[in-house]
Amino acid sequence: MLKIIYESISAPGPLGILLVVSALLAISRIIRVLTQAQDKNPHKCHPIDDEIEPLLDFDFRKTDPIKYQPYKTQGHVTMGIQKRVRSDWIRIDRGYLDRIRERLPLIKEKPEFTIGTGEKVDPAIEELYEEVMIRYLPARFPTMFKARGKTVENLATGTTYPLTTAGLTHAEMLAYMGENVEEDFYFMCPDHDNQYRLQGYIACFPGGFLSPARVGESVREIHKPVPGYDRKLGLSVDRYFGRMQPGDFIGRMNWSLQVDGADLFRTDGNNYYPGMDGAFSGEKEDPSLDECYLRVEHQTLTKLPRSGAVIFTVRSYMTPLHQVKAEGDGKALAEAIESMPEGLGHYKMRQYWGNKILPWLMEDVQVNGDDK
Q1: Mean pLDDT, range 218-244, rounded to an integer
Q2: CA–CA dist 211, 178 (Å, integer)
Q3: pLDDT of 284-337, one tens digit each?
Q4: Phi, then psi, of 291 in degrees rounded to 5
């Protein structure tokens, strides 16, 4: 082709110009064909991968959980959102293997609670699998997730998962996600009225949230039991969902007390709903302090480019209240709980455990104390 161009330039008069134009058009067509062929290649590098900063020396066994004290920095019933970057979407730390072991039996034995698929959400499930499992994990954590042929090997667990969605059911895609990351994913899909409704999920660690019962509900309907949400936040959240652009990442934190053990799978019991009076045993009113935990949810929202679904990503952390108090934060936590509006405090079940836990949190730390 280069020879043709050279000879065309050497040709005299209009014939030379015509030959040059013809040659350039031919090159343009070849480039267009090659570009289209690359676009059809499912394993081509995704442009947004450039936004993922690789952790080249990452060792999850030496990585501490993120620092979080939302009761100090975030007001009650506020969006409290902050911009995030794509690189921080998924977090892995030294507790990774323990929490993955906690997730595995939930996925296998309780799929009716942990896995939600459906015609309206299946395209978004496939899209999220491509984003998280194929693009994100090997790029962000190359010391943990290695692409080998048609699979990715998780070097921490010794398991593999497919490097393609071909041949997988949508339930299998969700299961693979749940078996490799600690985050839960809730799929909020737009309907014909541009309302975002829960249509699917991989939810191993719900904090008092029965996912199957909420399918089809809008953001406002899901948060209806939260006192003050509709009045203070409902319209703002709806508008924010509508304005989100693919590639946006925003985060916030939610927190509560869990006073009857450290297990993360909770379909009820952490929040109060009308009609629940008398449903709890004395452990809520007189809990063992050894069984009391601060439960924090690190929540991230992003929008998928093809389906337009908003992905609500939830990473849960549990800290014993003994540790909170030992670190000198007992009084700050107690003051945050006491300052909750009455309705919100009732929703968080303060009326059950408050009389015991709040005075204890306010006490000075006892070095050799025997709090129970």
Answers
A1: 77
A2: 15
A3: 889 999 999 999 999 999 999 999 999 999 999 999 999 999 999 999 999 999
A4: -105, 10
Q: Rounded to an integer, what distance in angstroms lies between the CA atom of residue 213 and that of residue 211?
A: 5
Amino acid identity, residue 148?
Answer: R
CA distance 51 to 32: 27
Spell out the alpha helix ranges (H) of the chain.
2-10, 13-39, 70-73, 96-109, 111-114, 122-129, 137-140, 170-180, 211-214, 219-222, 229, 235-243, 321-326, 330-338, 342-347, 350-362
DSSP state string for 100-167: HHHHHHHHHH-HHHHEE--TTTHHHHHHHHIIIIIIIHHHH-TTTEEEETTEEEETTTTEEEESS-TT
* pLDDT band, residue 254 (cuts 50/70/90): confident
Evaluated on CA atoms 207, 259, 286, 291, the torsion sign reads positive
Would the pTM count as exceeding 0.90? no
Query: 136, 52 in Cβ contact below 8 A?
Result: yes
Closest CA to 205 of 125, 104, 316: 316
Q: What is the pLDDT of residues 28-49, one digit of tens each?
A: 454 444 444 444 444 344 444 5
**What residues contact residue 278 under an 8 Å CB cut-off, 6+ apart?**
none
Distance CA 190, CA 219 (A): 11
Q: What is the DSSP letter of 253?
A: E
Provide the token pair at 367.
């070095």
Give the span between the Cα atoms of 323 and 268, in whole angstroms.
25
Provide the 10 A C-beta neighbour count for residue 237. 19
In the structure encoding, which two tokens stand for residue 85, read together? 């970057």
Report the alpha-carbon distance of residue 203 to residue 322 in Å, rounded: 28
Q: In what order do the strands lie in the sheet with 293-303?
A: 82-83, 249-258, 293-303, 310-320, 184-190, 196-202, 115-116
Is 145's pLDDT higher than 80? yes
Rounded to 5°, angle at Cα 25 from 20 and 26:
100
